[in-house]
Specification:
Layout (H helix, E strand, L loop, with lengths): L2 E5 L4 H9 L9 H17 L4 E6 L2 E8 L4 E6 L4 H9 L2 H6 L7 E6 L10 E11 L10 E4 L2 H7 L2 H15 L5 H11 L9 E8 L2 E12 L2 E9 L8 H15 L4 E7 L3 H9 L3 E10 L1
Parallel strand pairs: 4-5, 10-11
Antiparallel strand pairs: 1-2, 2-3, 3-4, 5-12, 6-11, 6-12, 7-8, 8-9, 9-10
Helix pairs in contact: 6-7
């Protein structure tokens, strides 16, 4: 059984191991990551909150950085399947209940693709990836780049914003609507101005049946910012066909992999992505007391 104990300092090996074993922070230089972790600890000291460590048989699994709002983030030292298995097989939920005076909500982000499912730990956000180089199936779906007037016609930005704000608030139950709107405006709206993003009409028999919004992450990776089959065309088997023809389309553009984010409560979309070959590359969980 894991033990949650108070530490006065962070083990020096934790910085290197946690950074090396997580792609979540790999876009951040190591020194910046170390500074980020130290800032989390300074926050604890400033607010007279404890630094909590999760140990299993004297092995450090990670640290919990909590906030004054009783919300915490669990940073794992290692993200391999053995650590996840130790968490799965342990009575972690009971141990967290013992800290109910400190923690109401706990977030865990892991790059282990193996699902970590306990009663009160729910996957709320998944990053998934797929190698598109070997897909050659064709269903006749075409992707046409949209001009500005066509984007205005086919893409409802207000509805997209409303849905995204709702998803943010489902992901974080203490986030206010104004905070969710601010998050959307900070992280999503700027993507529209990037040179490496394009919006396409999903076409079947010369009719636009949906929208695909892509942007380039790097020279080998394309990211799905948004994909939608219009309501009047749903339930006709287009979902899987669009996915497979999209793989060929992205591959023909010169990219090897395709990534996306999906909210955990969108179970129908998660199942579609899994059926068409996507694998988890990052999973964010939420524990709610």
């Amino acid at each position: 059984m894991p033990k949650i104990i108070e530490h006065t300092s962070i083990e020096e090996s934790f910085y290197d191991e946690s950074y090396k074993n997580s792609t979540f922070f790999q876009g951040m230089p190591f020194e910046k990551y170390k500074e980020h972790v130290d800032e989390r600890k300074k926050y604890l000291e400033k607010n007279k909150l404890p630094l909590l460590a999760i140990n299993h048989e004297d092995e450090l699994l990670g640290y919990i950085f909590i906030s004054a709002r009783k919300v915490g983030d669990l940073y794992l030292k290692n993200h391999d399947s053995s650590i996840i298995q130790k968490l799965k097989n342990s009575n972690l939920e009971y141990t967290l209940k013992e800290k109910s005076n400190l923690i109401d909500i706990l977030y865990l982000t892991t790059t282990c693709s193996e699902k970590f499912e306990l009663e009160r730990f729910k996957p709320i956000n998944l990053r998934m990836g797929k190698d598109v180089a070997d897909d050659s199936v064709s269903y006749g779906i075409e992707f046409k780049e949209l001009c500005n007037s066509e984007m205005d016609k086919y893409f409802d930005l207000d509805a997209f914003k409303k849905a995204t704000v709702r998803d943010y608030m489902l992901e974080d139950p203490i986030m206010s609507e104004s905070e969710a709107v601010a998050k959307f405006e900070k992280h999503v709206l700027p993507v529209f101005k990037l040179d490496n993003q394009k919006m396409y009409g999903v076409c079947w028999n010369n009719e636009v049946i949906g929208i695909l919004w892509l942007y380039e992450e790097d020279s080998e990776t394309m990211f799905i910012a948004y994909i939608e089959i219009f309501k009047e065309f749903r339930g006709q088997g287009f979902g899987k066909k669009v996915m497979y023809d999209m793989f060929s389309f992205v591959n023909n553009l010169g990219y090897k992999t395709l990534h996306l984010h999906v909210f955990g409560h969108n179970e129908k979309a998660v199942k579609l992505y899994e059926k068409t070959g996507f694998k988890n590359t990052l999973i964010r969980y939420r524990y709610t007391r």
